[in-house]
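pinned: reference chain
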Amino acid sequence: MTVVASQDLQVETSWSTGDVLREILESTRECVLVIGLDMRIAATNQPSISAFSRSGDPIEGRRLSEVIRDAALHDAFRWTLEQRKPSDLQIEFTSGTTRKFDVHISPIHLDGIPQAIGFFHDVTQVERLESVRQEFLSNISHELRTPLTSILAFVETLEDGAIDDRENNRRFLGVIRRNAERMRALISDILELSMIESGNVVVDVRNMELRPLVDAIFGDLAAKASDRNINLVNKVQVGLQVRCDPMRLEQMLTNLIDNAIKFNREGRGVTVSLDRKQESDLISVMDAGEGILPEHLGRIFERFYRADRARTSEVGGTGLGLAIVKHLARLHGGEVSAMSELGTGSTFTIELPR
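pinned: its structure tokens
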């Protein structure tokens, strides 16, 4: 920067090209690299050092190919330097984790020297969210199509004359009703999960005795447990209280106990217990089913994730129950976790702050 005097006042009149470039580079959150004709990095900014320097050391003066080993990127900078035209591409850069960048490269002149400047826009999160969106749409389409196909098939059968078949028409109507209820439950769960994730659900936390709540849930699910000869055991001690939103805790436990009945082995039991820690209460729902493979345990709280699709289709469910449990537990400031041993059973635990 130069300073000149005019009428006894000193006025800043100009900045060097290097000063201006440095101010511009450090004012952006995107990664920026300036590459010279020798394909070395002439200038950069802190986001680029954080993203591309594996050790955190400065990268100015180093060859581009040493810092980012991507032939397409190297060729794109070379082409822009030679042709003086902009270019665009997408690259993946791996340093511990893989990140994706949309890169725009433009020709520039700095102090009369031709160079190329590349702007790296990190699209890793955007692409991950797009992948989640596509997977969600695929899953929801499948989950809705299955009962809808069954409903349409039986409606057509009734229209073709089965409505007058006294031996089967009631059965066909029963199938239609069950599939319609399945669709209604799915849509209800989607709306519930959407409200929770958008922050429109607020928990009203208070002290509540746990054992009567578990007994009430057992009563609601008694017929389903009886059909599979499942014994429901409440091991929560009388008088013990937890801090929770009673309605939301009932929703969480109903989901977990219902799953434990569905995926248990006939003639076995489902046990609910409470373990009190210094800073939290652990409510556990334990079954004696076949167990969950280790590779599935880390994903069972994802929306629509099914460890055993064939088994899940047989016993029913929307595939959203555990995701709802996870979000409700976190709204309480807690968490939900799962442990499982193949051939022995699974235990799901809700942790609530005291």
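why pinned: The chain has three domains: 2-122, 123-201, 203-354. The first strand starts at residue 2 and ends at 6.
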